[in-house]
Amino acid sequence: MASNWLSQLFTVALFNLRSIPARKGSALTAAVGIAGVVAVLTGVLSIAEGFRKTMTSAGSPDVAIVLRAGAENEMTSGLGRDETRLIADTPGVARGAAGPLASAELFVIISLPKRTTGTDANVPLRGVEGTAFEVRGNIRMLEGRRFESGKNEIIVGAGARREFAGLNIGQEIKVGRNVWTVVGVFTSGGGISDSEIWTDAAVLQPAYNRGPTFQSVYVRLASPEDFGIFKNGISKNPELKATARTLPDFYSSQSEMLSQFITVFGVFISVMMGLGALFGALNTMYSAVASRTREIATLRALGFPAAPVVVSVLAESIVLSLAGGVVGAAAAYWAFNGYQTSTMNFQTFSQVSFNFAVTPLLLAAAIAMAAILGLFGGLFPALRAARMPIASALRDS
Amino acid sequence: MSAESSDLVRIEHVTKTFHRGSEEIHVLSGLDLTVARGEFLALMGPSGSGKSTLLNLIGGLDRATSGSVIIENDRLDELDDRQLAAWRARHVGFVFQFYNLMPVLTAQKNVELPLLLTHLNRRERREHAEIALNAVGLSHRLNHFPRTLSGGEQQRVGIARAIVTDPTLLLCDEPTGDLDRKSGDEVLSLLQSLQENGKTIIMVTHDPHASARASRTVHLDKGQLSTTGPE
After folding, report:
1. What angle do CA A216, A76, A221 make, to 5 degrees?
2. Would an 8 Å CB–CB cutoff place B52 in contact with chain A?
3. Assigned fold of B7-228
4. What is the CB-side half-sphere exposure of residue B176 using CA atoms within 13 A?
5. Choice between A58 and A257, residue whose per-residue pLDDT is larger
6. Domain boundaries, chain A
7. Distance (Å) from the C-alpha of residue B93 to the closest C-alpha of chain A?
8. Given an 8 Å threshold on Cβ–Cβ distance, is A395 in contact with B52?
C-alpha cells in the first residue's frame, strides 16, 4: 500500500501539473511575480557580495596589518618611525634579502573627478615602501612600471583608473603641494588595492607635512600559523601601543558596515516584494483550486484521502515558484554578475571599485526563497481544497 | 435468508437540514427506505425533493442531521472522515451526470484511478482497467483522452471507473441527463446488465424512460417518500 500511496501522490500531483496550461494566465502572473522578487533580491545581494568579495580577496592570511592601539582603520591610526622598525623586527615576520618583509605606509584621501559624472570623489592615495609589493604578494603591473623611489611618480589601481579621469599613463595630477606623474597601472586581482593610488611613502610624507610618521605597517608573516607569535610580540612589547590583525580579518571589518547596510536594505525590499508575490501566488492557487473544484471533489468522492489533494496543490505552487525563481535568478545573473561600479566605503570615506557578484550560493538561496514563497502561497489553498465539502463541491461545480 | 438480511441499504428516520444564514432548510424529514441486494432502484422526484441529497448520504459524501444510514453492516454516522473515505473507496462506485473524468488522463488512466487506493500493483491495475473498459465496450478507446470521446463514451468510461473496484453499491446521479436518447439507452442497458450480474444500483433520475429500466422506483417529494412504483 505504501507504493500505492506514493502512486496516489504522484498521479494526483502530475495531473494537477498537466492542467497548468489551462490556467496559463494566472500561472504566468504568479511565476513572473516570483521571478521579479528573486531577480531584485539576487541583484541587491550581489552588490553586498561583490563588495565583500573585493574587500576580502585582497587579504592573504599570511599578511598582517598593524595599527595604533584603539584605531579601527588607517585613517585614525598613527605610528612613529621607531615604532614601525620595532614592528618590522617582531618575531613571526618573514625576511627577504634586504631584511624584514614589512612596509610602513601612509594613507591619505585625495579628490579626483569621476569619469562618469565629472564630479569629484575621494580616492585613497597610499604611500608605501619598496617592500610593499613583496609583502602583498599579489600586485601585478598591467601597464607601465613601478614608481621610482624619491620621485613624484604614482601607479594607479585598475579600478581607480576605470572610475576616475586623468589617471592614464603619462598624465599628471596635482596632489598636496606637488604634481605627480602616472607611470604604471597595477592590479591586486580585483581586491581593494585596485581602487587605490600608490606612491613612495618617503615622497608623500613631506607633501602632506607628515614628518617621519606613518599610519600602518603591513608585514608578510613567515607563515599564517606565525600570526599568533607576531600578535603576541606586538601586544607584549612595552614600547609599542599597537594591535595586529590578519589582512582578511581587517578587510572583513572594513566592509562590515556597508555590507550589512546593503544586505538589510536588500532583504527589506525583497520582503516587501515577496509579500506582494506571496499574495499573487495565493491568488493564483485559490483560482487553481476553484477551477479544479470538480476534479478535487471527484477524487474525494472516489475515496482519495486529503493528503494527495494537499500535495498536488502544493506541488503546483512550488513548481510555478521554482520556475519563476530560476528565471529570476538567471535574469539577475545575466544582468548583474560582473557589473563594475564603485561606492563609498564609510570606514575610509573613499571610493571602492568592485564588481557585482552573483555567486552560486546566492543563486541557490534565491531559488530556495522562491520555493518557500511557493510553499506558503499554496498552503492555504491546499488546505481549503482538502476541506472542501464533497457533496456541495460536486453540486456547485 | 431472511428478508431483513437481504437488505443492503437501510435508511432509518433520516433527516437532513441545511442552513442558509439563519434559515433552516429541511431537505429530508424522517425518511425510511431499504434497498435489497441486487436491486436496481430509481429515485425520482422534482428538483429540490431531496433525491440527490439522499444519494449523497447513501454514498457517504454527506452526513445525515439525524437518523442512521446503514450499508451492509456499516453505520456511516459512526465513521470519521478518513474511515468514510476508505469506506467509499471499498464499497461505492459513483457515476456522475457530467462524467467527472480527469481531462488530462486517458480513458485507461481514468479507470485506474480508484485502483490507486487498493493493494494492486501497476500491472494489475492496468489489467483491471482493461477488463472494465472491455465490459463497457470501450476496449478500443483505452488511450483516448476524454475530449476525444463522445458523451456516451465518456459516460461508459465513468461506469467502467465505477465498477473497476467491484464495489458493493453503484450510485448513479442522473447518468443519462447529459446524453442523447440513443447514448442514454446504451448506458441504461449497461446498468441493467450490471444488475443482472448481481450489482446493486441506485439511480437518481428525472427521466421516466430511465426509471422504467429500474426494478423499482421510489418518488420523493419535499423530503419524504410519496409513492413506490411497481417492480
Report:
1. 25
2. yes
3. Rossmann fold (3.40.50)
4. 23
5. A257
6. 2-56+254-396, 70-240
7. 7
8. yes
